[in-house]
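Hey all, sorry for the wall of text incoming. These are the two entities for the joint prediction.
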Amino acid sequence: MAEPTGAQRRQSRWRDMLAGWRAHHGEVALDSFKRLLAQPVSSAMTWLVIGIALALPASLYVGLVNLQSLGEAWDSSARLSLYLKLDVDDVRGRALAETLHNDAAVVAVQYTDRATALAEFRAISGFADVLDGLNENPLPALITVEPVTGLSADNLAGLQQRLAELPEVDSVQLDLEWVQRLYALVRLGQRLAMTLAGLLSLGVVLVIGNTIRLAIEGRREEIVVIKLVGGTDAFVRRPFLYTGLWYGVGGGLCAWVVVGISLLMMRGPVARLAGLYGSDFSLDGLGIGATLLLWLAGGLLGLVGAWLAVARHLGDIEPR
Amino acid sequence: MAMIRFDSVSKRYPGGYEALSRASFDIAEGQMVFLTGHSGAGKSTLLKLMMLMERPSQGQVFINGQNLRNVGRTKIPFLRRQIGVVFQNHQLLFDRSVFDNVALPLVISGCPHHEIGRRVRAALDKVGLLNKERNNPITLSGGEQQRVGIARAVVNKPPVLLADEPTGNLDPQLATEIMNLFRQFNQVGVTVLIASHDIALIKSLPYPIMSLKQGHVVRQPATQAEVPFDG
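and here's what came out:
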């Protein structure tokens, strides 16, 4: 066989070094993980702390996603309620309803005369005795208008404005208002969740940073020896970065379990509540995307925390 | 060529204490030299300057032709890989086996896996501890621990071997055995510098002795003329 050329030899040397580097990464990752398992109680506590810290914003996020889907379900069934003036009689009322029905922006119209309104109110409200005491019917006639679907909020508001200006109409109530309020609340909640996530992420970074600081202190001798025999900063850093990564990913897993358990506990009451509203609404869990994001965020925060601790404390440990 | 060269090197510590004053000497490639002097005379400082654990206040240090002044912080590890060091207190790690202790410099320099086993066993064989590779170093005697330290220092085949009081805690017979190990490494071309105050032992060996007095290097002729010392 021919002698390998210099280039070939160099190439195989590089390949050897790369293989060695990769093998070392694998070993360090495994060794860091084993070290965590060797102290199961303290590791589990750290994981749980990180898990709870991550679970709080994650739960809030799940709740908001659910609220939003609830809003969307009702969004498509926007209704306008036109309360007519008390001096508008049934004939004029029905005529107006007929006219509105021909409006391009309107799909369906329902007219409720004053007597029917009173009867319905009497049946639902339980104020029958009070109503009997009144000598005249206080309720206005009502036209319920269902606009064409897919109108934007601005268009709906425009329609509301136009209808309110009709001479027979006293006031117009857009049933969408509560959906808009819900959205405003959801937006507020999102901001809250983001603030909370930011603060708790900082907390996670600090917890991991402090844990890594203790780990560095515990391996001081080893660090000194490694530096003496020619270990680079990257080499010294590596096990601690992996430790941080494992803390973070484990914490993300804990958070996932915590969120899952809370959802499971809320599923029954939510179904009962939805049943009372005649809805078949059910809670959505964390999707695959959000789950991956949770683990990724955990891992990333772990790395950042470890990196900060290492940058801060590793330089102090030098052979003397 | 000088493997180790000090060019009027001074080291003052904060507070004004001068551990080394204008020390100049050369140690040629393949030479073995003893460094002696009572404690506080600057032996440790001299070794630390070679390892870049300290920087000189004045003067220049050269190792293997490399001016250490030009070795930046991030390059220090690569300098240390060229220097095997044996410590009086061994500096072994008791959380891993003898094998893993000796393998550490190879792992650090990214040596391929299959080669690590071969080279660690070769080093352990040389110091006579091949049968102890699986032991934890804490179970070994002081002399054996020192030999593990020596195996770790030479496993990377460094051109320079430094030793700081390697026989400090050993009885005379073990001390002679350890010295014989260093002589064997020197015979295969390694430049060896041993700091020791075991005057009786080092005077009985045919190597030049360099002594430090209050930070000054005092040359002493080789006890046997066939080993010259161009200090």
